[in-house]
Amino acid sequence: MFERIAIAIAFSPRLQTLLAEANRIQQLFDSELIIIHVGSHTQEDNMKMESSLKDADLLEKVKVIWESGDPAKRILSVCKKEKVDLLVAGALKKEDFINYYLGSIARKILRKADCSVLMLTEPSLKSNPSKRMVIHAEDSPYATEAIKVGTYIGKVQSTSQLHIVREIKLYGLAMSASSERTEDELSEIRRNLVNEEIQIVQDILKELDTIGLKINIKVISGKSGFELSNFCNRTKSDLLIVGAPNRKMGIFDRVFPHDLEYIFADLPCDILIVNPKRKNNG
Question: Which of 83-92, 156-165, 167-176, 270-279 has the lowest mean pLDDT?
Fold first, then answer.
């Protein structure tokens, strides 16, 4: 699924927690692991890195790549050169020490990366499997892949609840409401729209191994970013999985839908952007 994983680190207070997460993610996907450090590279740095990797039980399991220059550009360059499938990085904390957001480096990575990206809000030294996950099965050509990744993680980590979220197409309901219809007719139209979205997800799940998973298909409406974030908070989810959007014609950066930009500004939990494009392109 993810054969080559890279994690971007710095010599910060969260170094050991990120390395501990990297070790667990490597085992989860049985992958090769690459450590990317953008910054100074002195003998002291080498010793610090070796000591940190030894403490994380990674000394003999990883390839360390040292880079200098613009962090986002260098990280993306390494991912491309090394044919990385999944890049892991830590999200930044807001000043109120409660909510998280993606800084400029993370946003550049999300828009330009040709691989999947996992942003961790609270990396931990101790194993903390995802117990409640949300998969946003919308606004992406990779929605099906997001569901596949989510169900795989759910089974391996014995997730207690997996929510798959679709969005009701309100324009269809609005068009129906603009004509002369009774309240009962409008209610029936809405039920049909909801059932159509549920059926789309059920058809995908039929092709996957979901035995033992407790799956809830949720159909939301309204401002989807706001509703999705609220749903993650209400369900106390620790991982949100979404498919990466297409790059727009003539633009090299991805343009994320407004709903995802809303979530990036105030992360409710860890977020995994699934983008299998590199492997699809060979």
Answer: 167-176
Contact 19, 47 (CB under 8 A): no
Indicate whether this model's pTM tops 0.85: yes
What region, left, alpha or beta, does residue 154 occupy, with left being phi > 0 and alpha being psi -120 to 50 degrees?
Answer: alpha
Query: Which pair of structure tokens corresponds to residue 196?
Result: 């159509």
Q: Where are the alpha helices (DSSP H) in 15-169?
A: 15-29, 43-55, 71-81, 104-112, 143-156
- Write down the H helix ranges in 123-254: 143-156, 170-178, 183-205, 224-234
Q: Please name each of the domains of the chain with its CATH number.
A: 1-123 (3.40.50.620), 129-282 (3.40.50.620)
Q: How far is CA 61 from CA 6, 22, 35, 74, 156, in A?
A: 12, 11, 10, 22, 22
Residue range 233-273, pLDDT digits in tens: 999 999 999 988 776 544 455 556 656 677 777 788 999 99
Count the Cβ atoms, other than its own, within 10 Å of residue 43.
7
CA distance 80 to 77: 5
Rounded (10°) angle between helices 183-205 and 143-156 = 60
Q: How confident is the model over 74-84, as pLDDT tens digits?
A: 999 999 999 99
